[in-house]
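ok posting inputs for the cytidine-5'-triphosphate job
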Amino acid sequence: VPVPPASGDLSGLRILVTAGGTREPIDPVRYIGNRSSGKQGVAVALAAADRGAKVVLLSANIDESVLAEARRREGIRIVPVSTTAELERAAIAAATGAEVIVMAAAVADYRVAEVSEAKIRKEDGGAPTISLVENPDILVGLVDERRPGQVIVGFAAETVESEEELLERGRRKLARKGVDLLAVNAVGWGEGFETEENALVVLDGDGQVAARAAGSKRETAERLLDTVLQDLHAI
Ligand code: CTP
Ligand code: CA
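and the output
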């Protein structure tokens, strides 16, 4: 299916997109990470830029092959980050200059309490116990500091047994985060992550289904941005 031509309907808008997955170091050579490829977030950045927006893309450990097209877009500024603390700092710095925030990054919920200065060795004494501490919720922080009229979009990838459970979990998360829109999708082993296709349900601030989108990550990104634009106009 061809990507619809750029319409310029987002021209003049500044959009902050976070994408990829944060990593938390264990020692100098190891980390705790997740399977997010960054493809959905990059697709949002590309779609927004092609519709005239100025995009800041906070890229958490995204493979260069996934970023290649975004690197060539004039309207996209890519800022690399790795840990959750780095993403948080960059997001707070960029948020004040954005009318729209799309938080597509998969953020590590926990980080390692004490990162080892040296590589952990088997000689040190068998399987180590790694203590974790909770990371701050970046999205909740951004919602707390929201500027007037700013539209904030969260993402939620859920492992669920049914569509009903997906919506129920999505609504609970939406209420917990206080976002304007939440894009929820079902994931499993090899579903949603690292794939070319996606299926999103977009919930509005009241928990109502504002849009459903299935197809390539670019197509779902376009539909998500349509919903964001409706939300901006409604304010
Ligand atoms: N998020 C965030 N900071 C965190 C964790 C999550 O900003 N420390 C954001 C994600 O970028 C995403 C949204 O919150 O946009 C939902 O992430 P998710 O992991 O689904 O939510 P959690 O609150 O971490 O709940 P769960 O226990 O289901 O992981
Ligand atoms: Ca989480």
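notes: The chain has six helices and twelve strands. Residues 46 and 111 are 30 Å apart (CA to CA).
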